[in-house]
Amino acid sequence: MNIADAVSKFHWMQLGEDGVVEMFLDHHSLATFRSCEASFELSMMANIKGKHKSWNLEFGIVFHKMVELFYIGKRDETFEFNDWLSKACYYWHLYNIDSQFEEHKMYKTLGGLHGFLAMLGQYATHFAAEVDRLRVIGIEITFGKKREVPLGEFQVSEYYTQGNVKGFQFGSKEVRCYLTGRIDFLMDSGNAIGPLDHKTTAFFKGSPSASYDPQEGMTGYVYATNYILKSRFPELLAGRKVDRIWMNFAQITPQADPMQRFKRVPLFKTEWQLEEYRKRQLRTFHKIYDMVVLGERPDWNTSVCNNMFHSECQYRNLHRQNSSSNMLNILNQDFVVAEPWNPEEMED
Amino acid sequence: MHSISPVYNEECVPAEQVIALDQPEYLPLVTLRVPEFGDICLARYEFTDEERKLIADGADLVVSEMLFGGSYTPMALEVTPKNTKPTMIDIEMRG
Q1: Which of A150, A158, A242, B66 has CB 3.0 to 4.6 Å from A226, enough for a Cys bridge?
Q2: Contact indicator for A270, A243 with CB cutoff of 8 Å
Q3: Residues A293-345: pLDDT tens digits?
Q4: Scanning every residue of chain A, which has its alpha carbon at the shortest distance from the alpha carbon of B22?
Q5: What are the pLDDT digits (tens) for A242-294?
Q6: Three-state SS for A214?
Q7: ipTM value of the model?
Q8: Nearest chain B CA: its distance from A171 CA (Å)
Q9: Is A22 exposed, middle or buried (0-12, 13-18, 19+ CB in 10 A)?
Q10: Residue in B with minimal Cα distance to A172
């Protein structure tokens, strides 16, 4: 595919004003490519998505919405508990959690809407005391196409096809890469500034942070925070480090001691870790560029078919088929061509 | 002299690539990349009658390569009849 076709087809590839190719990808897309190139091709290049909604995604949206309203209310001193729970009911129904997931194991473990309201009540009790200690200084901080978080550039030979003639141009060109994403909450502890992220899990097995240390998404949040603050808001950095992300973990499974249901864990990142992270992401960008522009066929990583980000891969059934015609049937039956994944434009 | 196709033989023409097509500052270069043998890139040049006469009269071949800031790469020059395999490939095959 030539560059002109690529930039017209993929919103995450653009030409800068100086004609240089620019790529914009978020952690989810980069991690998808690293997990399975075939999954990346289907989800990010062909925009093929399963018709069936995912509990993790849909419940995650509702839970994050409520957490966001909690911190906004606390920050603005407008928080009203009963009103907050009423909104929880609204979003629960808006996303049709009951009708979509009432047979889902996690729905049953949580206890449906009543269990969710109980969980939120415990959340508010548990974290209310810490709101003053860890102050919200930013909510919904999006970074992306405005080039807020550059990762650097790599060099490529320019490939082209003209009719049956294919080849390269002499010399090399740079491709600039930018991290995209969204920081839900930016917090200030008095001596440090960092993002706050929420993760829900069925129940804690040992330290809940073990699954996220190391994890490129979390490192990416710290990298982005670090870059944005240093380049745009240096005045906020007086006496404060930007070397951590706080993670609030929540168990879906109700606990005898409600206070054991949540844990807040900080993960620390050094300058060296952030620089190594940057170089690794550039390498992933380069591989994605090669797959798009050089037309290299994607690898299948069959070791993640049953555990792609803690769930069965949405394309597992498609890739199990024994003929191209059967694959086409499954594509028509279980998948749709959806809007491209673009976290910058997502409301949630 | 001009870069010509086939670089090796007709069978390999579909694998040929033209470097610098639509890059007006350079002449197009027909190449055959042979990754199996040390990732060699082959090109065949046909001399004009005037150049043939100059060589017959004792002129030399001068090679100029733009490096674009990169390192100089090993280069082999040889004279071969059309549709014959360049010696470099045989050398690589013998290891």
Answers
A1: A242
A2: yes
A3: 888 899 999 999 999 988 899 999 999 999 999 999 999 999 999 988 887 76
A4: A169
A5: 999 999 999 999 988 878 899 999 999 999 999 999 999 999 999 999 999 88
A6: coil
A7: 0.72
A8: 6
A9: buried
A10: B68
Report how far residue A278's alpha carbon sits from residue A280's, in angstroms, rounded to the nearest whole number. 6
Contact A170 B23 (CB under 8 A): yes
What does the alpha-carbon distance between residue A108 and residue A96 come to, in Å, rounded to a whole number?
15
Query: Are residues A78 and A69 in contact, defined by beta-carbon separation less than 8 angstroms?
Result: no
CA A229/CA A193 separation, integer angstroms: 9
For residues A27 and A181, is the Cβ–Cβ distance under 8 A? yes
Range 151-190 of A in CB contact (< 8 A) with B? 160, 162, 165-172
Chain A CB contacts of B20 under 8 Å are 167, 169-170
Residue with token string 């023409």? B13
> Which of A3, A157, A166, A168 best probes binding to B when mutated, by most B CB atoms within 10 angstroms?
A168
> Which tokens belong to A163?
């009719």
Q: Do A166 and B68 touch (CB under 8 A)?
A: no
B59 and B73 Cβ atoms separated by less than 8 Å: no
Cross-chain residue pair B19–A169, CB shorter than 8 Å: yes
**Confidence (pLDDT) at B84:** 86
pTM of the model: 0.84
Sites in chain A below the pLDDT cut of 50: 347-348
Distance spanning both ends of chain A, measured CA to CA: 33
Chain B residues with beta carbon closer than 8 angstroms to that of A169 = 19-23
Tell me the chain A residues in contact with residue B26 when contact means C-beta distances shorter than 8 Å: 170
Q: Is A242 exposed, middle or buried (0-12, 13-18, 19+ CB in 10 A)?
A: buried
Contacts of A165 in chain B (CB under 8 A): 18, 21
